[in-house]
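In this supplementary section we document a worked example of the pipeline. Step one takes a protein sequence of length 196 as its only input; no multiple sequence alignment statistics are reported here. Step two produces a three-dimensional model, which step three serialises into structure tokens for compact storage. The input and output of this example are shown verbatim.
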Amino acid sequence: MSNTNRKFRVSFNSPVVLTFSIICLVALLLDFLTKGWANKTLFSVYRSSFLNPFTYFRLIGHVFGHADWEHFLGNITLILVVGPLLEEKYGSWNIGAIMFSTALVTGLVHILLFPNTMLLGASGIVFAFILLSSITSIKDGSIPITFILVAMIYIGEQIFQGLFVKSNISNLTHIVGGVLGATFGYVMNKNRIKRV
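The serialised model returned by step three reads:
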């Protein structure tokens, strides 16, 4: 006799990705409530004095900030689609390390190369996840053709836009995020990194 009275449960299936998304939502609401103060002070990165403790927080915190709802939804939707699959494959610890590393490296690159502009948003992490997801099945030293196509499409588009399109989008952050995602994916798959 089958049990037809099963209870429906909601699971917190991807703790790192879900927590990150919630923090981004809180940061967006906080920025709205403070009329831009939160993004300027906490959730964007730009060159400032290393005597200011906020400078160090902003090196990571910039990935939580978003300019508006459209910016937030564009990044978080992709993170929520791809992130849980990656977190299930590689583990929460590894995905957290990839997100932290991407935030830190893109923050440092930005303050070194673009000292007079602010950077905010999780698009570097989005691109890291996109490239990481396309390189998840390395076997016997071969690189999947899907990875080559995704890299050509996503990174190629960013290079083209960076050279020929004037916008407020940080194409370099996308490229750096994609390179980091591909690198982490290659290393973790080649060395059969255990899920942690």
